[in-house]
Amino acid sequence: MAQTLEGGRVDAATVARQEQLLQHMLDAGRSLQKDERDDSGKREAESAKNPQLFAPENHDASGRSAVKYPVPTWDELRGLSADQRRAILEYFKRINGGTRP
Questions:
Q1: How many domains are contained in the chain?
Q2: Domain-located, residue 29
Q3: CA of 90: how far to CAs of 20, 38, 64, 74, 79, in Å?
Q4: Contact 4, 15 (CB under 8 A)
């Protein structure tokens, strides 16, 4: 099959052989995965013990500080039509360098 492909003589029989080879490789991979699974019985979840949480100190974790101009809140936009809200949000997206609100 390799010689046929190198020679540039690809026909329907070569394609069928390639598909068959690929199918055999996929089947072999599935059976290897099946062998590696632990089928010893019922699985049970276990909660973390002494989890170490990371919290940045003295920083706003909301991401708002990365925005040059704060995007209006829903309460500020509520009285506008859908088209007006969309235009305003697009405007803020552009002036903030393409970031989404």
A1: 2
A2: yes
A3: 51, 51, 17, 14, 17
A4: no
Q: Per residue in 40-93, pLDDT tens?
A: 667 778 887 877 777 666 666 565 556 678 889 989 999 999 999 999 999 988
Domain membership of residue 54 (yes or no) is no
Q: Which residues of 2-27 are buried (b: 16+ CB within 10 A; e: fewer)?
A: eeeeeeeeeeeeeeeeeeeeeeeeee
In a domain, 57, yes or no: no
* Domain that includes residue 86, residue range: 64-95
Distance from chain centroid for Cα 62: 21
Which sign, positive or negative, has the C-alpha torsion 43, 47, 51, 57? positive
**What pLDDT is recorded for position 93?**
87
Q: How far apart are the C-alpha atoms of 91 and 101, rounded to whole Å? A: 11
Residues 6+ apart with CB under 8 A from 62: none
Model confidence pTM above 0.70? no
